[in-house]
Specification:
- By secondary structure, the chain is α+β, with helices and mostly antiparallel strands.
- Among the domains are: 1-39 and 112-132, no CATH class; 180-321, Immunoglobulins (Immunoglobulin-like), CATH 2.60.40.
- The protein has 8 helices and 12 strands.
- A hairpin with a 5-residue loop joins strand 5 and strand 6 (195-197).
Length: 323
C-alpha cells in the first residue's frame, strides 16, 4: 500500500510506494528532497475478535425477521449530483436480499486513493516520485574557460607593466632639469715647486655639443677676458650650448653653473706660459676645436689643465696646473 508522506519544505501531502520508506525522495510539488516515513504495518484484527470472523461475512439464521437480521450496516449510497433530486436505482436493497433468502451483499473493499504525487497532465507524462540523487559538491568548469581566464590574467599583467613603464617615462620626460654648480680653487706650481693661487680662465664645455664655426670663440678674446663686454659675449655663446666660463679671483676661487646634469669637460688656462715641450694630444685639440677657433694656438700659449667630469649634483674641485 502507498505510504502517506508530508513534504518538509512545502508541507504538501502525497502518497508514494512503500518501497521508498525511510528514504529521501524529491517532492513532486516543490522538487526538494524530503524524507519518507518508515512503513507501519496496520492490522484490521481486534484483540477480542479473530480475524476470520471479520473477513467472513455474517450469516443470517433461517427464519429470522429482516429487522433481526439487519445487523450489517449497508454501504453508503452514492451521492447524487448537486442540484439533482434523483436517487440512483442501481443500489442493492438489503431487505430484498434478505427476503429472497440469499446472503447479504458483501461490502466492497475500500478503494486506495490515487497518490497526488502521481499525476498526469496534458503537457507531460506521469511523474513518479524518485529517490534523491547523491548530492555532488563543487562546480565543474570547462578547461577552455580556465585557459581563457589564465590568458586574461596574463594580458592584465602585461598591460600593467606597460602602463608602469609609460608612466615612468612620462615622469622622467616631464621633469625639469635642475642646474648644478661647480666650484673650486685654481692653483699652479711655481718655479720653486710651491703651489699658489692663480687667477686663470676656467671653461665648462658640455660633451657632445659644439658651436657653429662662425660662433666659435676667438683666442684673443679668451686671453683678454678682463673686458666685461668680451666676458659677457663669450659666456652667452657657451651658455647657448649648455656651457659656462669664468675667471678665477685672486684666491683662485671659481664658480661655474651647469644648466643640467650630464658629462662635461673643464679647461683651465693659467696666467703663465706653457713650458712643457710635450706635444698636445690630437683628440684634445679636436674636442677644444668644437668651441675655439684655433685650439692649438690657445693650448700652446698658456699652461692648461683638461679634465672630464660627470656632473650630477653640486661639486667642488681642487685643480692644480703644472706649467
Amino acid at each position: 500500500m502507498p505510504v502517506a508522506c508530508t513534504c518538509e519544505h512545502c508541507h504538501q501531502s502525497f502518497h508514494v510506494s512503500r518501497r521508498f520508506s525511510d528514504r529521501r525522495i524529491r517532492c513532486p510539488y516543490c522538487k526538494r528532497p524530503t524524507l519518507v516515513p518508515a512503513r507501519q504495518e496496520t492490522s484490521t484484527s481486534s484483540p477480542d475478535m479473530p480475524s476470520e470472523a471479520i473477513s467472513r461475512p455474517p450469516v443470517i439464521p433461517a427464519g429470522s425477521t429482516p429487522l433481526a437480521a439487519a445487523t450489517v450496516v449497508p454501504p453508503p449510497a452514492p451521492r447524487a449530483a448537486p442540484g439533482s433530486n434523483t436517487v440512483p436505482t442501481d443500489v442493492p436493497k438489503l431487505e430484498e436480499s434478505v427476503e429472497s433468502g440469499g446472503a447479504p451483499p458483501a461490502l466492497s473493499p475500500p478503494v486506495e486513493p490515487v497518490p497526488p504525487g502521481w499525476f498526469l497532465s496534458q503537457a507531460e507524462p506521469p511523474v513518479w516520485a524518485q529517490p534523491e540523487a547523491p548530492h555532488r559538491r563543487g562546480v565543474w568548469i570547462p578547461a577552455s574557460v580556465i585557459a581563457m581566464q589564465g590568458a586574461l590574467l596574463a594580458m592584465c599583467a602585461v598591460a600593467g607593466l606597460l602602463a608602469g613603464w609609460w608612466l615612468a617615462q612620462s615622469q622622467i620626460a616631464g621633469e625639469v632639469p635642475q642646474p648644478c654648480v661647480v666650484t673650486g680653487t685654481l692653483q699652479r706650481i711655481d718655479d720653486n715647486g710651491q703651489s699658489m693661487a692663480d687667477a686663470g680662465l676656467v671653461l665648462l664645455l658640455p660633451e657632445g655639443e659644439r658651436l657653429a664655426r662662425s660662433e666659435r670663440l676667438a683666442v684673443q678674446d679668451l686671453l683678454n677676458l678682463e673686458s666685461s663686454a668680451t666676458e659677457v659675449s663669450t659666456r652667452d655663446k657657451l651658455r647657448q650650448v649648455g656651457g659656462d666660463v669664468c675667471r678665477a679671483n685672486a684666491d683662485g676661487f671659481f664658480y661655474l653653473k651647469a644648466p643640467r646634469p650630464g658629462r662635461y669637460h673643464i679647461l683651465c688656462l693659467a696666467t703663465v706660459a706653457r713650458t712643457r715641450a710635450t706635444p698636445i694630444d690630437h683628440q684634445l685639440l679636436a674636442d677644444v676645436g668644437k668651441f675655439v677657433d684655433q685650439p692649438h694656438q690657445l693650448l700652446g700659449a698658456r699652461a692648461f689643465h683638461w679634465q672630464s667630469l660627470e656632473v650630477k649634483t653640486d661639486q667642488q674641485l681642487p685643480i692644480v696646473i703644472q706649467p
